[in-house]
Amino acid sequence: MSSKSIKKGFNRNHLIIMALGNIIGSGIFLGSGTVISIAGPGAILAYIFGGIIMVMEVMFITEMTIINPAPGSFRVHASEIFGPWIGFVNGWMFWFSGVLGMASEVAAAAIFTGLWFPGIPLWVFCVIYALVMTGINLKDARGLSIIESFLASIKVLSLVVFIVFGITTIVGITSFGGIKPLPVFQSVNSFMPNGFRGIFASMIMVMFSFTGTGIIGLAIAESENPEKDAPPAIYTITITVIILYTFSIFFIICLMPWKAFSTSESPFVEILNRAGVPFGSDILNFVVLTAALSGLNSSMYSASRMLNSLSLGKQAPKTFLIKNKNGVPVYALGLSSIVLLMTAVISYIVPSKVFEILAAASGFTALVNWLTISITHFFYRRKTLKEKPDRLKYKVPGWPLINFIAVTFIVVVFATSPLYPGQISGLIGSITLFAFLVIIYIILKTKKLIN
Q1: Residues 175-205 pLDDT 10s
Q2: Number of Cα atoms under 13 Å in the Cβ half of residue 178
Q3: Mind telling me which residue stretches traverse the membrane in this protein (predicted)?
Q4: How many Å apart are CA 261 and CA 252, to the nearest integer?
Q5: Is 180 helix (H, G, I), strand (E, B) or coil?
Q6: DSSP conformational letter for 10
Q7: Which helix (H) or strand (E) holds 435?
């Protein structure tokens, strides 16, 4: 597939904003509470470990997309190496992960809004936000990136402000509510109260915080100059995310006992509540709300584009090829939004667990794609060196060793996920979904209903 078939719209800044908007979301602002409750202060190591995996995956995606900036990105690349079946499975797994990511973000947005309006059921907010963000996504790529620029800037700035707040509190410049640094680094037991078991048990929720990286390949394919814009953009993206995540978690565990965090409220809001900062919790609750909406916004973009790519590859109904005057695949967006509305049903049935369930499910399905990307890149580099070495404009350092490292790390995360009982269903579900899609592909291929 040629990149000429799609409408170009992103420059380097757009790539950075869209990626940050998709990666930084409820995973850090809400999910970090769950991570800390499982791993304790050792959550810092969990986020660093997750960040290393993210960096490798982003580099793999970037190299392959620069070589062939096709709609669908890594789905198309996997198909070139292993055949159309893996492209089918990969694409639909990504779509499911994207929709689950959208669902978790809208659930988080509903939870944050519910703090101001506790009498209104969460499902009401889920419906409202789903409809509003669908309307926003009907704009073209440039219009979408402008809106995302505003939303992403708010949450990046809020993390920076929180880090500054943490620094000034620890060094004694400010002392809201008498908060003082906690002695969490005095011993191994205080830093890792649940040992390495706790760190590995928390990794699925940590990885959910990084799963928005898939949008990078899709956005590069819609960029004006992939070879020039993508490499510097990914370095900015990965460095920014790792610094913001690591320092934010560091100050969170330094300023509040790790056992005191709730899995249903943002740790950032809890700390400002405890500190008694005037209007601090309300302001930050608004910030984390915009963060969730930003993640929902960009997840909608990536999910609908992947569905459109599947249709381009004749692995989804032709209806998803139809675009409006802005170049937006309206029916692909529509299906993604309709499935998103199911979040309202889940939030009605299990309101206290809706975010955790959806986040874990999204994390598992995304990891399956990351595993495929890591393996695909190994063979894609080898294929390119043999057939089109001139297309290798950007090279991932450390190939092929880095691919073995990435695969090993991801397998370890999968293998240790049952350490947290609530994640077993997600693990089984992701494996079942993968097998189900393979069977569906075989049936459709046999009946010659797909390419």
Answers
A1: 665 666 666 776 778 788 888 999 999 998 8
A2: 0
A3: 15-38, 44-61, 82-103, 115-136, 156-179, 199-221, 233-258, 283-307, 328-351, 357-380, 401-420, 426-444
A4: 10
A5: coil
A6: B
A7: helix 424-446
**What share of the chain in percent tops pLDDT 90?**
21
DSSP class per residue in 252-269? HHHHS-GGG--TTS-HHH
From residue 186, alpha-carbon distances to 44, 112, 261 in Å are 15, 35, 21
Q: Which burial class, exposed, middle or buried, applies to 415 when counting CB atoms under 10 A from its CB (0-12, 13-18, 19+)? A: exposed
Query: Which residue shows structure tokens 């959910």?
Result: 208
Q: How much is the pLDDT for 1?
A: 40
Count of other CB atoms within 10 angstroms of residue 58: 26
Task: Spell out the CATH class of 12-447.
Answer: mainly alpha
Q: What is the DSSP letter of 24?
A: S
Token code pair at residue 74? 């890594």
221 contacts: CB under 8 Å, gap ≥ 6: 3, 6, 65, 69, 70, 71, 72, 73
Find the helix packing angle between 267-275 and 226-255, rounded to 10°: 40
Backbone conformation region of residue 189, classed left if phi is above 0, alpha if psi is from -120 to 50, else beta: alpha
Q: What is the DSSP letter of 420?
A: S
pLDDT higher than threshold 90 for residue 360? no
119 vs 214: CA distance, rounded Å: 37
Residue 329 DSSP symbol: B
The torsion angles phi and psi of 223, rounded to 5 degrees, stand at -90, 160
pLDDT tens digits, one per residue of 366-413: 888 899 999 999 999 999 999 989 989 899 999 999 999 999 999 999
CA distance 53 to 367: 10
Strand partners, 323: 329
- The number of angstroms, rounded, from the C-alpha of 357 to the middle of its chain's C-alpha atoms is 15
Under 8 Å between Cβ of 249 and 47: yes
Domain boundaries, the chain: 12-447
Decide: 304 and 332 in contact? Cβ < 8 Å.
Answer: yes
61 alpha carbon, distance to own chain's centre = 14
Write the CB contacts of 70 (distance below 8 Å, at least 6 apart in sequence).
Answer: 1, 2, 3, 76, 77, 221, 309
Distance CA 373, CA 193 (A): 34
Secondary structure of the chain: what % helix, strand, coil (to 5)? 80, 0, 20
Q: Rounded CA gap, 23 and 17, in Å? A: 10
3-state secondary structure of 323: strand
